[in-house]
Amino acid sequence: MPSVEGIVPIMPTQDSSGFVMLDWLVLGAYFVLLAITGWMFSRREQKDTNDYFLGGRRMPTWAVGVSIVATSMSAASFIGVPQQGYETDLAYLSTNIGMVLAAFVIAFVFLPAFYRRRVQTIYELLDQRYGRTAMQATSAVYMAGRVMASGVRVYIGAIPASIILFGDKGLEPLNLCIAIGVLTAVGIVYTLVGGIASVIWTDVIQMSVLLGACILAIVLIANQLPAGAGEVVNALRSGAEGGHSKLTVFAFGSEATPWWANPFSLPAVFVGFTLMGVASYGTDQDMTQRMLTCRDEKAAARSVIGGILFGIPSVALFLIVGLLLWVYYQQPELWLAGGLESPASPTDSRRVFLTFIIEHMPPGVSGLMMAGLFAAGLSSLNSGVNAMASTCINDFYRRLAPGLDERAYLRAGRLAVILWGLILGGFAVLCVFWQHHYGENTTLLTFALTVMTFAYAGLLPVFLTALLTRRGSTASVIAALATGFILVLMMQPILWTRLVDVNAIRETYAASVAANPEASRPPLLVILDLAFVWKLTIASSIAMGVCLLGHSRQGNTETAPITRGGAC
């Protein structure tokens, strides 16, 4: 970072949309690249659903690993992770400890079972253990949860798209809906022509664009800061008000935020995020479908472990963007030292990175940044649509219409892609009006991570019961799925604020603490303040107890738990 004397002036603000002709050309080149790769995949013959949904099980391990990272890094990550670094510190990076632990569980417990049974969707395993009804109930829960998670990500990705298309009116509901329609149409068409192979190779391209945009953003922000590297590090180490260092990686509890309320505290990292990782990489068809495209379980194991390890520096880069933006907008004394006026900080931290992209980046670079953002958004949509179509065809349609020609199932799979794409777009539109009416109470990152806990709280215990025990039955599987969802719902503030006056309880507790610092926190506040990973832990633990109450079918050799692991 240059000294004050060598500072580069702040780039002038562009037009109301933030884009000039060069930006449009760069963004257009990105979509041309997508169109060319889509055309290349459309020329490949796909004989059956194994080719369309699993790529013939011949995808390279490294490409699958990159695709896993790209899928986990959605538009919410592009905007939300810098926001996390801007508002807090580097503690989110420590969650990768739990994810790495989860990767080994997936590699040595889940993948051997999936490959031995040659399933196209992981829920087919439950058909062999507990019967068709249990399998279809689990598939339905997954698809409902995936619509919610991917739909929210499409909505988040549509926000900058709408601003580009409509300028100052980009946040109006109608314009947001149009932007969602554009993203949805592009995602459907691309997924339609090439299947999972096109999704994986697109993820490779889009991850390259995403990381390239992030690295370039770090260089540009650092180049515009009116201080040297030492001063910036000292500012980050000193932190915000209260002296909390923004370079903190391992977080613990504090008086203001106890460990159970901090989703990135070390206990949450080792327990909650390990469970979250096992659920997301082992029970979510969106992720596991990629691993099943590898030639065998060993290659699949390497892909998931390598992918999660590759995700660590990727997340670190976006957190660094957030830290540098905090210095850029929240350290006016650094600007005053150089006789310069501090740039006005965004009033909404959710848009801090987007604001810098539009207002302070040179022409052409803004277009590249938005291409990276679209890459993240389209990756979530493509993968979600393909995974849900695969689940729909293999877990439902094949049972309803058995014995058809494979090309008939392939045609049905393409129709399912269109159907689920429209449903995802519809839920994203619903999010426009939902946020417009209720607003946001959490960061985008936390919100995106929270959504899938509704489905994971039931899916995780069902799979652990099926893979590790001889217990469980159709009835207990369905009961566990319902229990997990209901318990997560019961712990949500949005529910309790409509049943009791939570603010009054908080005020009473605050008064009690003023009179007696040792006053105990009301149980309801403890539940509401729990981080989402603890809500997942509690709900999935109780749901697993429910699932274990059932007895497996007599004489079924498939009920044996998994005792051997895969090799990496």
Written account of the structure:
This protein has one domain (4-438): Up-down Bundle (Sodium/glucose cotransporter), CATH 1.20.1730. The longest helix is centred in the middle third of the chain and has 52 residues, at 173-224. By secondary structure, the protein is mainly α. It has helices at residues 21-42, 49-54, 61-72, 75-87, 96-116, 124-130, 132-166, 173-224, 229-238, 266-282, 285-291, 297-330, 332-337, 352-360, 365-400, 406-438, 444-451, 453-468, 474-490, 493-496, 502-515, 523-529, 532-548. It has 23 helices and no strands.
Main pleated sheet: none
Question: What is the averaged pLDDT score?
Answer: 80
Name of the CATH architecture = Up-down Bundle
Which structural class do the helices and strands define? mainly alpha
H/E element sequence: HHHHHHHHHHHHHHHHHHHHHHH
Q: Could you give me the name of the CATH homologous superfamily?
A: Sodium/glucose cotransporter
CATH class: Mainly Alpha
Helical segment count: 23
**Residues in helix, %:** over 70%
Structure summary, number of beta strands:
0
What percentage of amino acids are in beta strands? under 5%
Distance between the termini: 42 Å
Gross geometry: globular
Task: Give Rg in angstroms.
Answer: 24 Å
Number of domains: 1
CATH third-level topology: Sodium/glucose cotransporter
